[in-house]
Amino acid sequence: MGKYDEDSATREYWLEVLRRINIDDRVRVLNPIRLTYTSPGEESYFTVREWFQSRVEFVESDADKLMKYYTPYITADLMKTVEQVLKSPIHQNLVRSMLKSPMGISFSGINDDIFLKPYFPL
Question: The pTM is what?
């Protein structure tokens, strides 16, 4: 979507981002697993599907570490927010089931964004 502006992150903005997602496109982040013996090429980058999955795994791992090692210092608000993140549609629906489909998924005809806009403030 080009340059990101936090002030323009409206519901319409996130709906348009979601509609434009093609899970088989590549993001401009190299996947280190694919760099073992080849020079970087287009196939060396994460797909959108892989990127979503890796970021959700990262967030879940960090949330687990936070709860495991810093429990005495966690406020009720922070704990509630972490739980909301982990129970969000991105974690529970998008990555756990929708992106697992070998057929892929398209958001181009979606009328409401239940994924990105609610996740952003968390």
Answer: 0.83
